[in-house]
Each structure stands twice: as C-alpha cells, then as structure tokens.
Amino acid sequence: MSGLLHDKNILVMGAANQRSIAWSIAEAVHREGGHVALTYQAERLKGRVSRLAEELGGAPMIECDVADDDAVRRAVDRLAEIMPVLHGIVHSIAWAPAEDLQGSFVETTRTGFAQANDISSYSLIAVAREARRLMTAGGAVVTMTYAGSWRVIPNYNVMGPAKASLESSVRYLAADLGPAGVRVNAVSAGPIATVAARTIKDFSGMLDLLESHTPLRRNVTADEVADAAVFLLSDLSRAITGEVVHVDAGAHAVT
Ligand code: NAD
Ligand code: 0WE
C-alpha cells in the first residue's frame, strides 16, 4: 500500500456533519492510507458523526468537549487504548457566541471574548498537552485558522483576536514540541459554506466578491483545504513547523 499517510494514526477533532472541514480532512487522511479516529463535541452529534465514521469503515469515535480539561484527558485515555502511538492531530474547532459575530467589535463582552478564546484557541494547547504523550514517534499537529486574525473582516469580530491567539500558539507549541519531533502548523482557509459559516450575514455576497478578486478568480473547497492538511500531516512537510499556510485562492496576497 502507498499513500502519503500509510499506517499513520490520526486524531481528527471537529467533524459535526458532512460539510465540516474536519470531515473532508478525515476523508483525505483515509484516502492516503491513514487510520482516523474522530472526536465529536457532544452526545447530540453522536448519531450524525457515527454515520460519517461508518463511511471510513467504522472509524473509532470519542466524545470530547474541549471546554473541559477532564474531558480532554478522558478522551486521550480512551484514544490510547485504540491508538497507543499517535502520529497526527487535526484541530478543527471554533466557537463564539452568535451575538459577538455581528455589530460593533467594541461591544464585545468579557465573557464572549473569554469563551471564543477558550474554545477556539486555548483548546489547541489543552489537546496538545494531553495527546503528546501518545506522539512517541514524532508527528504533526494541524489547526484551522482564518484571515480575520490579521485583517479586519466585517462581523468576524471577536473571532479575529481568538484566531490571532491561536496562530501565536502554533508558533509557541512548535518551539515546545519540536525537540520531540512534533511539528505544529495551521491552515488559513478561505471562506467555505459550512454550518459555522452559512449562518453569517451576507456570506454568499462575500463568496461572490472573492470570486472576482482572488488571483485564482474563485473560492476554495473543503477538499482543497483537506489536501493541504494532509501535506502538513505527512512527511512531505517534515521541515515545516510554526507556519500558517494560506489555502485561499491567493486572497491574502491582494487587497
Ligand atoms: P463546523 O461547524 O463544521 O466545525 C466546527 C466544529 O467545532 C464543530 O464540529 C463543533 O462541534 C466544534 N466545537 C465547537 N465547540 C466545541 C467544543 N466545546 N468542544 C468540541 N468541539 C467543539 O465548521 P467549519 O467551518 O468546518 O470549522 C472548522 C474550523 O475551520 C474552525 O476552526 C473554523 O474557524 C475554521 N475555518 C473555517 C472557515 C470557513 O469558512 N468555514 C474558514 C477558515 C477557517
Ligand atoms: O471561524 C469561522 C466561524 C466560526 C464560528 C461560527 C459561528 C456561527 C454560529 C464561531 N462561532 C460561531 N457561533 C455561532 O453561534 N469562520 C472562519 C467562518 C466565518 O465566520 C465569519 C466569516 C467566515 C468566513 C464571520 C464573519 C465574516 C466571515
């Protein structure tokens, strides 16, 4: 068997449904010969995620609410029974209160800011801290970010600073875990119509604008983002760590 991730054990966190970027990554990892374990946020998502897991030939599924350190530890304990050696982690999780993704940024609440950073940024540190005990053969951590971290995008609001914090954590984690052979990178994806994105006001207007302005004159698909994640999980990227790779049809390069 060939495949870029042949026989690699990869934990994929953040698949909620068929549109989730995490799901496209899980499919791409499977295609490349990797073994996927999926985590899901809560009981209410279990049914839907189990149908996805079936499509991968019965991938193991573990509940993990990343807001809770004990839940993260229990999830990694369960993972250890299935995958004693882990080669990769995909963190594809973000959340902020809906009321903080509209209106004036200056109205951002203390609790909204704390929650957005807790779920969307701190959780990467919590997961890396627990799961590194399974990454005894080295490995790769990949998280998902968005250009709202470094440029102002209307309504992205509190998620902007949360993604800036996430990208900075990628660099600090890369420095910390590099000596153990663990690389840490982020994919900065252009907008994709997932559940998390479609609730955003005038999302389709944004897609239309990008179609006429990006260097490639189009938007990106979750499958294209997934292929970049596979690259970052694979040995092809063995000298890349602490990096943020834009998969955005070139949007970051133009005004
Ligand atoms: P999605 O809604 O399918 O995925 C978000 C996931 O976060 C869901 O599976 C949800 O269950 C999970 N989650 C939220 N709170 C959680 C918690 N407390 N514990 C565990 N899981 C929790 O949407 P998506 O677009 O696939 O988002 C995935 C990642 O991609 C996010 O980090 C997002 O910021 C990023 N991203 C998305 C886009 C886009 O346009 N869709 C662009 C760039 C980056
Ligand atoms: O990171 C994101 C979205 C993350 C997100 C989405 C929601 C919707 C539902 C976080 N929290 C919530 N909370 C909810 O209650 N993206 C990169 C997608 C996104 O969101 C935007 C975008 C894009 C792109 C918001 C405004 C403008 C563009």
- CATH class division: Alpha Beta
H/E element string? EHEHEHEHEHEHHHE
Termini separation: 44 Å
What percent of residues adopt helix (DSSP H or I)? Answer: 40-55%
Strand content: 5-15%
Number of beta strands? 7
So, CATH architecture? 3-Layer(aba) Sandwich
Number of helical elements: 8
- Report on the biggest sheet: 7 strands, parallel
Low-confidence stretches: none
Structural commentary:
The chain is an alpha/beta fold. The protein has a single domain, classed as 3-Layer(aba) Sandwich (Rossmann fold). It has eight helices and seven strands. It has helices spanning 21-31, 46-55, 69-82, 110-131, 159-177, 195-198, 203-213, 222-233; strands at residues 9-13, 35-40, 61-63, 88-91, 139-145, 182-189, 244-247. α1 crosses α8, α3 (69-82) runs parallel beside α4 and α4 runs parallel beside α5. The N and C termini lie far apart (44 Å). Nicotinamide-adenine-dinucleotide is lined by residues 14-16, 20-22, 41, 64-67, 92-95, 119, 144-146, 189, 191-192, 194-197.
